[in-house]
Design a protein that fits this description.
single chain; 2 domains; elongated; 205 residues; Arc Repressor Mutant, subunit A; five-stranded parallel beta sheet; Rossmann fold; 58% helix; 12% strand; 5 strands; alpha/beta
Length: 205
């Protein structure tokens, strides 16, 4: 069973938090509310599909400061800012830092739900990219350091002779390493190795 998307609502306005929780749960999301950035940071953040609805200005650390703290901690949850005090410099700063949207209070239900869909689409793409990168890293971990050097040069499009020159080894040795790594990676042709190399490049981007 796939868990519902988890929406974190961080806002010091108690009535707004309550109304957002009702709206989100009615729309099929799971939602959790926090009265401050400090309260949010005290709770473990589950590794689940979701995003943060974040008030820009609150007593104590601001929404922008929480956005920066999440980035420092490597938390990739997309952020949608909510504010009644929008100004261009702040909006630009938030968007440059990766915010998905910047909604001025009061906002329409559909406007919020549209922003949530964009945020969750970004979150899904980020999760997929991380999973693929982990899968590729795990698969390549079976290679020795020398086999990995040969593989990396194959990925970069080097010919066997070029690899031999760069690594200071014989052409036959390069061919032997290439054959060994193909066995370890469970590929049976140069075409399959090329596909794996392409996946590796994509996972690294």
């Amino acid at each position: 069973m796939i868990a519902k998307a988890l929406i974190h609502v961080v806002d010091d306005d108690e009535s707004l938090r309550a109304s957002l929780l009702d709206l989100l749960e009615a729309a099929g999301f799971e939602a959790r509310a926090y009265a401050s950035t400090g309260e949010f940071l005290l709770h473990p953040i589950p590794d689940r599909r979701g995003c943060v609805l974040l008030d820009l200005r609150m007593p104590g650390p601001s929404g922008l400061e929480l956005q920066a703290a999440l980035q420092r901690q490597g938390v990739a949850l997309p952020v949608i800012f909510l504010t009644g005090h929008a100004d261009v410099p702040t909006t630009v700063r938030a968007m440059k830092a990766g915010a998905v949207d910047f909604l001025e209070k009061p906002f329409e239900r559909e406007t919020l739900l549209d922003a949530l869909q964009r945020a969750l689409a970004r979150d899904t793409a980020q999760h997929t990219s991380r999973e693929e990168e982990h899968r590729q890293s795990t698969r390549l971990a079976v290679l020795t350091s020398r086999e990995r050097e040969v593989f990396d040069r194959i990925v970069a499009g080097r010919l066997n002779k070029q690899i031999a020159d760069e690594l200071g080894i014989g052409l036959r040795t390069v061919k032997a390493y290439r054959a060994q790594l193909m066995v370890k990676l469970n590929v049976t042709s140069a075409a399959e190795l090329g596909m794996l190399a392409g996946e590796q490049r994509h996972a690294s981007n």
